[in-house]
Amino acid sequence: MLNVIYPIKLPVDNLPVTDIVATFTPMVAASILVYREEKLPGVKNLLKRAFDYKRITNNAWFVPIIFLTPFIYVLTYVIMRLIGLPVPTVWNPSLLTPLLFIAFFFAAAGEELGYTGYVTDPMQARYTALTASLIIGLIHAVWHFPSEISIGQTLGLFIWGGVILAISFRILSVWLYNNTGQSVFAVIILHAVTNTGRSIFPGSRSAFELYDGAIGYGLIAITALIVIFLWGSKRRWRDSGMPAEADEIGSERIFRSVRQAFDRQM
Q1: Cβ-count burial of 141 within 10 angstroms (0-12 exposed, 13-18 middle, 19+ buried)?
Q2: Which of 19, 20, 33, 213 could staple 161 via S-S, CB 3.0–4.6 A?
């Protein structure tokens, strides 16, 4: 889509226009709901969360934020080579990759300001981190179904790259969100790095998705399972330095505001 708008040969995925709509709708929907309760100042505060990097007080968390999915991609490539899949032996990433990352950053912001900045806290106020991740991840997956159907994805890729990826990625997103002082910026960077890395994978995304993407997406799913195993499935996956009481009160307030907005519609 970006190459059609401005043909500079970015190594971007060939995604339909419906994906552009799906990308920015969560932010737009969240902004509308926030405006109903808090007017323009509330919307400004929501949008500012795309750059709330100061919430990340423990710099060690930048390691998984930046390097987790690139490590998974390297491991994916190694496995593909070992089992003899036809992936290139030489990697020549485009010099325009930084521009691609910027594009993916804004695209990720369009999704994460809704999924993470607006929905995640209220969901975790009512459910565990795992349950919240599963619900949001499934919604994220379903939201992209029209785009995946329109480009004729195989059933296997539909499952691995659609449902399993969306849910696994949401588990990792919520885990990082809770351990970075509830930083939306952290999740946006993770999202942008994930998409950029897949686009510049040796042989591009089409090579990454050989075998219906079962190798790469499967490794992401395994990583999510490791997070569940290490951090537990029945709690918040909370940073030990985060004040639990204040966090829960804030989350309950947000959930109450959303519920009141819907009640007035009934």
Answers
A1: buried
A2: 213
Please state, in angstroms and rounded to a whole number, the distance separating the CA atoms of residues 41 and 168: 33
What tokens appear for 134 in the block? 């599963």
Per residue in 185-231, pLDDT tens?
999 999 999 999 999 999 999 999 999 999 999 999 999 999 999 99
* Backbone φ, ψ for residue 46 (5° rounding): -65, -50
Read off the pLDDT of residues 104-113 as tens digits, 9 standing for 90 and up: 999 999 999 9
Give per-residue pLDDT as tens, 86-100: 999 999 998 999 999
Residue 10 lies in a domain: no
Residue type at 250 in one-letter notation = G
How many C-beta neighbours within 10 Å does residue 212 have? 17
The two structure tokens encoding residue 203:
């042989």
CA angle 223-217-103, nearest 5°? 100
- Domain of residue 67 covers 15-41+54-250
Residue 6 within any structural domain of the chain = no
The pLDDT, as a whole number, for residue 260 is 54
**Burial class of residue 65 (count of CB atoms within 10 Å of its CB; 0-12, 13-18, 19+):** buried
Q: Within 10 Å of residue 57's Cβ, how many Cβ atoms?
A: 12
